[in-house]
Amino acid sequence: MLTKNITLEGRTILVTGAVGFIGANLSKRLLRDIAGVRVVGIDNMNDYYDVRLKEERLKDLSSHPSFSFVKGDIANKSTIDSLFAEYRPSVVVNLAAQAGVRYSIINPDAYVASNLTGFYNILEACRHSYDNGRTGVEHLVYASSSSVYGSNRKVPYSTDDKVDNPVSLYAATKKSNELMAHAYSKLYNIRSTGLRFFTVYGPAGRPDMAYFGFTEKLVTGEAIKIFNYGNCQRDFTYIDDIVEGIVRVMQHAPEQSNGEDGLPVPPYKVYNIGNNRPENLLDFVTILQEELVRAGVLPVGYDFEAHKEFVPMQPGDVPVTYADITPLEEDFGFKPATPLRVGLRKFAEWYKNMWVDCREPR
């Protein structure tokens, strides 16, 4: 197992996408558990999904005196340059991105702006953080995605697999992030780690994800569309497991060294973070509906069969996601393990107790 070479205590950590689902949970964890930490968050608060979710997350984070928030877009270079100049972060966790496979077909411009231009701005700011002999950014951790594996048939997906055939623009931008980070690690010795997340879920998550979208439709009496006629498998990963993995990875940056040519060997790594246990979509739907009834979101005796519609696969989707997490387990002693029922129960309870009240007309 790798030893820690980054100290988080008393440091300034920049989290982009700080009021997004993962960003907010990560920020909360750092503020709660790391002594003397200062978390600087940036988010553009866009309306890709209900902004009230982001507002609630920001309200929670803003109660911490060690949290600073900048409303801005990482695609704006001057915003990023000013932020780095003012706060001089020691560790950067780039989670800001336009997410979603299907939306990338509808609005590709958003993906180019945030995922490509925005990530380029972060890399450039990290590069120049070393100017004039400064210590600079000690570790850049950034979000990639299981989508980079495209329609690979070999499972489980390994970070050693070739991922040269993306099936969506979203996947292409995430693979591009990995290539860009590698280039900057090689050219400027920036220590970077990419994390390929697998279907993240949990309370206060993204409404465009299946479990949240299904719930919203069932509550309003609409039919839920089950793609590929139910013949899909997903490696659902609970949010707390994702955050635990990020925090562990943050504390060990890839080592810097020179090769035989005297030039830097890129201090660069990529890991999968998944539950390592893909679930059949129909089993997932069954567990979700049981937990929604248990929590009182839906009434006992709800006719689920009347609210299911089996449809073909959508463009950009893949039939299975399945993470090989061996390197994560070997290097950091961590393996995500939250059972799907446990995670969906927590989501259903949050939905019943928090979200229904939060979205009442103001």
Automatic annotation (TrEMBL):
InterPro entries: Epimerase_deHydtase, NAD(P)-bd_dom_sf
Domain NAD-dependent epimerase/dehydratase: 13-274
Keyword Transcription: no
NAD found in the keyword field: yes
Alphabetized UniProt keyword annotations: NAD
The name this protein goes by in its record: Nucleoside-diphosphate-sugar epimerase
Organism: Alistipes timonensis JC136
